[in-house]
Write a structure and sequence with these properties.
Layout: E1 7-11, H1 26-37, E2 43-45, E3 49-56, E4 59-66, H2 74-83, E5 91-97, E6 105-109, H3 117-126, E7 132-137, H4 147-151, H5 157-180, H6 182-189
Parallel strand pairs: 1-4, 1-5, 5-7
Antiparallel strand pairs: 2-3, 3-4, 6-7
Helix pairs in contact: 1-5, 2-3, 5-6
């Protein structure tokens, strides 16, 4: 699947130490692992993002953490995509997913935003839904907890024990997508049914 076209990998989250351990910030956590894998440091890019550039799975990549809040991620992602001339079909967004159990990772291209305001913002800014998503399962809120409060809460103690492995697996999913394409990466990352 690799070609001469650069890829943009956007890990979604909210900036600042207050949000660092939140479920909503799992995209930032995966972006940090990817930046370490390409041996690059995040630098302020175009004032609205932190970006790290390098090579991943044989492809030129720019790994981005939008420095807007989650609900306004689209502007920074579109600005970096425009600057590096990355078309939407070479954009990968890593984000938290309420509708997947914790530790579940799913890859897809296109589709709706499923109530995720970060995806809604990116879809509006890119003017298409046709970008890749790495959906990182964070599970549903317990009891009657408001989903908005849940995503802005830190992972539970038991979840934190598994979190480093989950984040590494999220980075593996991005690498598999770039190296082998969507279908092969899905076969590799998604558990076999049955």
């Amino acid at each position: 699947m690799t070609d001469d076209q650069r890829w943009l990998i956007a890990g979604l989250g909210n900036p600042g130490p207050r949000y660092a351990g939140n479920r909503h910030n799992i995209g930032f956590m995966v972006a940090d692992v990817l930046a370490a894998r390409i041996g690059a440091r995040f630098k302020r890019d175009r004032a609205t993002s932190q970006a790290a550039t390098g090579s991943l799975a044989g492809a030129a990549v720019v790994v981005v953490k939008p420095m807007s809040f989650m609900n306004a991620s689209g502007g920074p992602v579109a600005a970096v995509a425009s600057f590096y001339k990355v078309p939407p079909d070479h954009v990968v967004v890593v984000h938290d997913e309420l509708d997947l159990p914790y530790e579940t990772i799913r890859l897809k291209q296109g589709g709706g935003d499923n109530g995720h305001n970060g995806l809604r913002s990116i879809t509006a800014a890119l003017r298409t839904r046709d970008y890749y998503r790495v959906r990182m399962g964070i599970g549903r809120p317990p009891g009657r907890q408001d989903p908005a409060d849940f995503v802005l809460s830190d992972f539970a103690v038991a979840e934190r024990r598994e979190l480093p492995l989950l984040v590494e697996r999220g980075a593996d999913a991005v690498e598999a997508l770039l190296a082998r394409g969507l279908a092969a990466a899905q076969n590799e990352i998604h558990p076999a049914a049955g």
